[in-house]
Amino acid sequence: MVQLISETRDEAAAAKRIAADLANLGLCEHDTVLVRSATRFMTVPTRSRPGALLDGIRKVVGPRGTIVALAFTPDFYPWQRKRAAAVPFHRDAKSETGALPQILVSNPDAVRSMHPTNSFVAVGPNARSLLEGHGEKATAFYPIERLIELGGKLALIGCVRSSPGFSTVHRAQEALGLADRSLLSNLRICAVRDGDVIRFFSRKDVSGCSEGFWKFYEKYEQEGILHKGTVGGAPSILANAAAAYRIEREILAQDPTFAFCDDPACTSCGLRTYSPARMARFFVSVPQKIARGIFGGRR
């Protein structure tokens, strides 16, 4: 009993500290916020850091606020249909984008969009209107448009460098017609479960690599829209979604390659057809990488 009381107190104290940190970062009551997190980098003493983070967010945004997360599921190449069929998408399919989205997926009051590979999950009064229409005919980051219209915010908790950038970048890529200009278009599939039937979905738009999205951070700071701090001890940032999207779209319209990562062998960046130079670099680098792996191991 003493241990349970201690754990309860720890949970409450962690959520209280996280709520204070989020408020200092710029999160407000009634906000609609898209949260991406890596809670392993948080240092608050609690049994469940994802749970404490969710409680902290709720304390700040209140019952009229809406919490949104990415609840993505695996996709595969067409020759991997058996693997895809083993993990079909459905309303309760396990998310592979972290513990916080999974908590929301497991919440019966949450709304989950039905895009087979890039579903979003949300809880709060704006959840249904935000995710409505995000199905197989929509692009992967379609809900970002509604988030912007709602004056929503974007938060990265702990993953500022490990999984950098805001999801508005992907929406800007879609709006500019860049997301489907890849040799991977229609080459990524997943299975979808409809009752007892398994069918397959093919993605045309391929959102791709986000490892280079940190390059926007300096631009956000120059425009004065980036709020920086720590949440539960983890480095974190927050920005208004509309402001971030405006900056990203303006930059990508001028230079579609701005957000590419620095790995020449990156499949996602290297197979973008709007950058012949990057494609050439990719096709040169891959054999070199394979050769290094083979002959380097013989030394």
Overall pLDDT confidence: 92
Give the C-alpha Rg. Answer: 20 Å
Encode the helix/strand succession as letters. HEHEHHEEHHEHEEHEEHHH
The percentage helix is 25-40%
Query: How large is the count of helical segments?
Result: 11
Estimate the strand proportion: 15-25%
pLDDT under 50 segments (min length 5)?
1-7
Structural class of the secondary structure composition? alpha+beta
User: What is the domain tally?
Assistant: 2
Q: How are the strands ordered across the major sheet?
A: 3-4-2-1-5-9-8
Instruction: Report the end-to-end length measured between terminal Cα atoms.
Output: 59 Å
Q: How does this model look, in words?
A:
Helix content is 39%, strand content 16%. By secondary structure, it is an alpha+beta fold. The chain folds into two domains: 2-73 and 91-178 and 209-259, no CATH class; 261-299, no CATH class. The strands form two sheets. Strands 3-4-2-1-5-9-8 form a seven-stranded mixed beta sheet, sandwiched between helices. The chain is globular, with a radius of gyration of 20 Å.
Brief sketch in words of this structure:
This protein is of the alpha+beta class and 299 residues long. It has two domains: 2-73 and 91-178 and 209-259, no CATH class; 261-299, no CATH class. It is built from eleven helices and nine strands.
